């Protein structure tokens, strides 16, 4: 009646399962083998990746985008405006009422080109009145752009929408860069009026 405690514990254990009781279904094995064979044949009989007939056929030149403009080439002011300015002043030039001033019909855009050049070069913070409405905000400096690019933007906004002012030459921006050692934006319209 008395059994060894180890023997009793062993009798309570179940037998370990064996795969022979429930082997992998033959159909699943055939599918797996067929997929491996198909993959091997596919890899061996397809063309190299650089000659793919079904993949992306664009060339490296097409993927790299347009080439940078050569020095002295005409600058697309409209494209630069869309990339740099339209987020705030909108593509229509009407700005956002109460937030960003309009460029369409703006006295600052159609006025003295020197003032517009300095606005683009240095930016403006504080209060500015445009078309009789006061705006409080900040416009960043675009000093990182080249003189031709700034002239392209200025010429575009001076001649677009209802604006009919003359184009601006890159030389004006070069002259204004050299004439000023300003490192901060203009403090509202009072500082800009001092330029006139």
UniProtKB/TrEMBL annotation:
Any coiled-coil regions, as ranges: none
Q: Where are the transmembrane segments?
A: 26-45
- Cytochrome c domain residues are 72-161
Please tell me whether the keyword Membrane is annotated for this protein: yes
InterPro entries for the chain: Cyt_c-like_dom, Cyt_c-like_dom_sf, Cytochrome_c-type_DH
Q: Name one Pfam family in it.
A: Cytochrome_CBB3
Database matches in PANTHER family? BLL4482 PROTEIN (PTHR35008:SF4), BLL4482 PROTEIN-RELATED (PTHR35008)
Instruction: Tell me what this protein is called.
Output: Cytochrome c
The opening ranks of the lineage are: Bacteria, Pseudomonadati, Pseudomonadota, Betaproteobacteria, Burkholderiales
């Amino acid at each position: 009646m008395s059994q060894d405690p180890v023997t009793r514990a062993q009798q309570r254990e179940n037998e370990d399962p064996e795969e022979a009781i429930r082997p992998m279904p033959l159909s699943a094995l055939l599918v797996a083998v067929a997929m491996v064979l198909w993959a091997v044949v596919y890899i061996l009989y397809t063309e190299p990746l650089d000659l793919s007939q079904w993949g992306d056929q664009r060339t490296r030149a097409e993927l790299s985008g347009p080439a940078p403009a050569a020095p002295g080439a005409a600058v697309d002011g409209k494209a630069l405006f869309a990339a740099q300015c339209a987020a705030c002043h909108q593509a229509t030039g009407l700005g956002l009422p109460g937030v960003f001033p309009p460029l369409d019909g703006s006295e600052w855009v159609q006025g003295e080109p020197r003032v517009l050049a300095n606005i683009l070069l240095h930016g403006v913070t504080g209060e500015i009145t445009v078309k009789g409405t006061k705006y409080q905000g900040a416009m960043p400096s675009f000093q990182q752009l080249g003189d031709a690019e700034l002239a392209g933007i200025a010429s575009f906004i001076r001649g677009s929408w209802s604006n009919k002012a003359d184009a601006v030459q890159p030389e004006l921006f070069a002259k204004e860069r050299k004439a000023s050692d300003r490192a901060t934006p203009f403090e509202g319209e009072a500082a800009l009026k001092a330029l006139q």
